[in-house]
Design goal:
Strand content: 5-15%
Order of helices and strands: HEEEEHHHEEEEE
Helix content: 10-25%
CATH class of the largest domain: Alpha Beta
Number of helices: 4
CATH superfamily of the largest domain: paralog of FGE (formylglycine-generating enzyme)
Length: about 350
C-alpha cells in the first residue's frame, strides 16, 4: 500500500494543474510582464482642472478606460532599443548624441537613459517588435495621474527637483536626459511621467478634440497631420510643460528630436501568441519566450488548455508560480511545457 505521503506526491501535479485551470481567470492579471505595470480600468476627468494651460487642454471631460492594460514602467532605454536594432526590428536613431552629450546612443554610460531621435514610426516599430503598442493619449494621461484626481503632476500639485527632471531642477543631469527610474514612481508604479523626455502616443493631434471626444476609450481623430507627444517639452524642460494635462507637443510622424522618446503599452493577453512568427511569444522580452524554445525554464502557460484553438496555450508565462505546476512534463523538467 502506498503511504499517505506517496499518494500526496503522486496527486500533487494534478491538483496544482486543476487549481491553475480554476484560478486562471482571476490570475490573468495577478502578475506584471517584465518591465510593465498593470493599469486598472477606470474613469477620470481628462484635461486641465486648473484652467492654467492652453485651450487644447479644455474642456475637462470624463473619460473611461474600460479594460485593464499594461504600461512600460519607464521610457524605452538606449540598451532596450539597441536590442531591437540588432534584431532587425528597428532602425538606429537618426543621431547618436543628446542635448549635452556628444556620444549618447551606443555609449554604455547611457544604456539606462531614454532613447531619443526616434520618430513616431520607429517608436511604433519597436513596440510592435515587443508585441506591444503605443498608448493612446487618454491611456497615457490616465496612467500618468497614477490614481490621483485633478492634480497638476503625477504626485500632487507642487514640484521640486526631487520629483522630476526639469529646467534648473538641480539634479546631476540637469538640462539633459536622466536615467530612467531615477525619480520616484507614481501611484501605478510608472517613472518619468513628468519630465525627462516627451513620449509619443498613438493619437493624431486635433486642438479641439476634447470637445468631441467619446467617453469610452477615445483614440483620437481618425486622421491628421501631427501626432501627439506627452510628458515633457524640449530642453530646457519647464514646470508648466510637464503637467499631466499638458498637450504642448505635437510633431509630424517623421520628426525626430533630442527631446522625445516613448514607452509602450499592452492589452490583456498580449504576451502569449507568436503572431509575428519570430519563435517567441509576442510581448515577451528576449530570453523569456512563451513556449520555452531556448529552453530557459520559463513555462508558456497560465492554464493547461488551448481554449482559443490557436495552437498556443491560453495564458502567458507563469510569473506567479514560476516553479510549477507541470502541465504535461514533455521534457521532464518539472516546469510547465505546454
Amino acid at each position: 500500500m502506498r503511504s499517505w505521503a506517496t499518494r500526496r506526491f503522486v496527486n500533487l501535479p494534478l491538483i496544482l494543474c486543476l487549481a491553475v485551470l480554476i484560478l486562471a481567470p482571476a490570475m490573468a492579471f495577478a502578475y506584471n510582464p517584465p518591465g510593465m505595470s498593470l493599469i486598472p480600468a477606470g474613469c477620470f476627468n481628462m484635461g486641465d482642472a486648473f484652467s492654467e494651460g492652453h485651450s487644447d487642454e479644455l474642456p475637462v471631460h470624463n473619460v473611461c478606460i474600460t479594460s485593464d492594460f499594461y504600461m512600460d514602467v519607464h521610457e524605452v532605454t538606449n540598451a532596450e532599443y539597441a536590442a531591437c536594432v540588432s534584431g532587425g526590428g528597428c532602425m538606429a536613431p537618426f543621431f547618436s548624441y543628446s542635448y549635452n552629450h556628444v556620444s549618447y546612443y551606443g555609449n554604455p554610460t547611457y544604456n539606462n537613459f531614454p532613447v531619443i531621435y526616434n520618430d513616431y514610426n520607429e517608436s511604433t516599430a519597436y513596440c510592435t517588435w515587443e508585441g506591444k503598442r503605443l498608448p493612446t493619449e487618454a491611456e497615457w494621461e490616465y496612467a500618468a495621474r497614477g490614481g490621483l484626481a485633478g492634480k497638476r503632476y503625477p504626485w500632487g500639485d507642487t514640484i521640486s527637483g526631487a520629483k522630476a527632471n526639469y529646467d534648473n531642477s538641480g539634479d546631476p543631469w540637469d538640462n539633459d536626459t536622466t536615467p530612467v527610474g531615477y525619480y520616484a514612481a507614481n501611484g501605478y508604479g510608472l517613472y518619468d511621467m513628468a519630465g525627462n523626455v516627451g513620449e509619443w502616443v498613438s493619437d493624431w493631434y486635433l486642438a479641439t478634440y476634447y470637445s468631441v471626444s467619446p467617453t469610452n476609450n477615445p483614440t483620437g481623430p481618425a486622421s491628421g497631420t501631427y501626432r501627439v507627444v506627452r510628458g515633457a517639452k524640449g530642453f530646457p524642460v519647464y514646470m508648466f510643460d510637464i503637467r499631466v494635462a499638458s498637450r504642448g507637443q505635437y510633431f509630424l510622424p517623421t520628426n525626430q528630436y533630442y527631446t522625445v522618446g516613448f514607452r509602450c503599452a499592452g492589452d490583456e493577453g498580449f504576451a502569449c501568441e507568436d503572431l509575428d512568427g519570430d519563435g517567441r511569444g509576442d510581448g515577451c522580452v528576449p530570453g523569456l519566450d512563451c513556449d520555452d524554445l531556448d529552453p530557459n525554464n520559463w513555462n508558456s502557460c497560465a492554464t493547461c488548455a488551448d481554449t482559443d484553438s490557436d495552437s498556443w496555450f491560453a495564458g502567458c508565462d507563469d510569473y506567479v508560480t514560476i516553479s510549477g505546476p507541470d502541465c504535461n512534463n514533455n521534457n521532464a523538467r518539472t516546469w510547465n511545457t505546454c
